[in-house]
Amino acid sequence: MKKTWMAVIGLVALAVGVSAVQGQQALSGEYKIGVLEPLTGNLAVRGKGHLEGYEIMRDLINEKFGGVMGKKLVFAVGDGPDPTAATSEATRLATREGVKIITGTFSSTLCGAASEAASRQNVIYWETSCVDPRFTRRGLKNVFRTEIDGTGFGWYNIEFIAKHLSHRLGKKPNELRIAYLSEDSSYGQSVTESARQRAKQEFGMQEVAAPEYYTFTTNDLTPIILKLKNANPDILHHIARDQDAILFWRQAREQNFQVKAVVHAGATGYGNPGFGKAFGNDANGPFALLEPGPGLILEKLRPEGQRIERAFRDAVKAKTGSDITGDHQLAGGGLWVLKLVLDAAKTDELEKFRSAVMSLDLPVGSAVNGWGVKFDETGQNSNARVQHYMLQWQNGQLVTVWPEEFTTHRAKWIPLGAWDQRK
Amino acid sequence: MGLTLIFGVMRVVNFAHGEFLMLGMYVAFWAFALLHFDPYVTLIVSLPLFFALGWVSYRLIMRPVVHASHNVQVFTTVGLSIALQNIALVLWTADARFVRTSYYAVVVRVADAAFNVAQFVAFGVAVACTAALFAFMRWSYTGKVMRATAQDRQASALMGIDTDRVYALTWTIGIACVGVAGVLLAPVYPVYPTAGLQFVLIAYVAVVLGGLGDMAGALLASLIVAAVEVAGSYVIGTAWKEVLYLLLFIAILMVRPAGLFGQRGAEALGT
Predict the structure, then answer these.
(1) Which listed site, A142, A241, A358, B130, has its alpha carbon 20 to 30 Å from B192?
(2) Which residue of B96, B107, B231 is in closest CB contact with A274?
(3) How confident is the model over B239-268, as pLDDT tens digits?
(4) What is the dihedral sign for C-alpha A64, A65, A66, A71?
(5) pLDDT of residue B271
(6) Which ranges of chain B have pLDDT less than 50?
(7) Which of B172, B195, B218 is the last residue of a domain?
(8) What residue in B sits closest to A38 (Cα-Cα)?
(9) Contact across the interface for B93 and A45, Cβ inside 8 Å
(10) How many Cβ atoms are within 10 Å of A120's Cβ, its own excluded?
(11) Could you tell me if B160 and B270 lie in one domain?
């Protein structure tokens, strides 16, 4: 009997050891890539969030998923707070650090300049966050983007408005009156213009006025709010960058601007955790198109997607003590796809790497954030594969509310009630 | 007020003025977040605090360059501005923070216009500070000494005025004023390391438009700039608001180089 027990214990130990080895394959050497983010200046809070996401995913890849190409993944980090600095840092990472791949850069104001510099050094530029549609339309063969582009954001927002909000508001899509407001960078403009185009052409939605664009560092949005009050739209499509969302929300309340719904896209503005910190429960109501947040039913993803998604969320929780954020998701999701490509290509030589990128074909639900992967010739991951979700501020937290089949939460306050009744 | 005082008396273009405003906003935020001090209680504490900060920053940074060329002064204050921004970034991160008082959503309605209570208070305190500083500069002995130094530093020195002390006092009062302004603005605007930048350009426009060193002029000019900005945003479009007030600024300076309320020729004094 004792021998039997010893044999059982031995087999269990062997099984544990084998699975541990499978998870932590012996890594031979290091493979270095450049990570370029705005770590100082106006965009630093987002850049640091992205860097944290990259680091957590890097550690996860090294510890549990065999590194990249059998090597330990390491970073050379660059700080690019503005286009000039991003250009210099991309050049430094390529020439001084000797990296063959640079990833980054959060902002649409940075990715264009940084990728041009990378292209001049014949270095692969792996963008995980910026959404400027022009990024992949310049004919550069070294440029790839895992995240949806601005036109995809606009497409999803109108999908949500037409398929979910309109019937909750008791109107047909072509009866909805929309106002468009946006900060004036390429990010805001591309999302807004693509949303306008789809809303008008496919659903016949009505625009109450010409779109308003403003600089996100503005210190007064009252004139715009007064114009919006006069226009009296059903829905406000507002693309905000950061503190402008806080300013708008506060001044809209002061001016008692009532609208039935506010819809945003991206991890900025209303999609930024800072918005909830600023207002607490007074933030209740606005929607933000993002990667999936609390409420996501993980079982709806494919098994391989569930595995990496769960591992990543757990790793973020263990490292930061809090729930995953959009910054983590974009950076981590993009880095995971890069790992899959490198493992398939087994090289960073551009032609073979590009061939591996084009060959990768994963259905929705296969990767981090529930994404799928299918790149087109421009280097853009298919918007249709980059599944996005609508989140809503509810009691100080952004929760996933749409598509409803993927979440346990439901959208509330449709239409938005009086300012003091959104509890 | 602080900017026009420093600009008018010392002829120093203080590019770090916005960063001292940002520090005032952070003082209000941390006092509120950590000690639960209402910003208007912090206001009382902040005055001596920024007086001390102004004196220390003058002694350590401005005094060695106060008689140097404009280029040196510009580089010094730009350097100070960048240093303060990055210190704030390292210490407090780039998160936009917000002083959410229990009365932050309380609005005062006058006819069809709505004003936040904090805006009302800030305006009232700004008017009171302007009046006090105007009276100080006009009627006090020290104020007269400061004006004399602004008009001709060398002649003032020959008359026995300690111009170094005048400059120290001017800088210190200027920084105290902007520190108070930061505390007053904290309940109205988000607080982050580059928060001061968005106020600096428009503040310079108001100061030059009003006439260098002219307190009442700066107040009136700021109201004119605000009216042009808001009306232009509403009628023509938000993208045009800066264009409109800068065009007005250029047009007025072409006709009156000393600004709307400045003495003719004052812009060339003390240079």
Answers:
(1) B130
(2) B96
(3) 788 888 889 889 888 888 888 877 665 555
(4) negative
(5) 43
(6) 270-271
(7) B195
(8) B94
(9) yes
(10) 13
(11) no
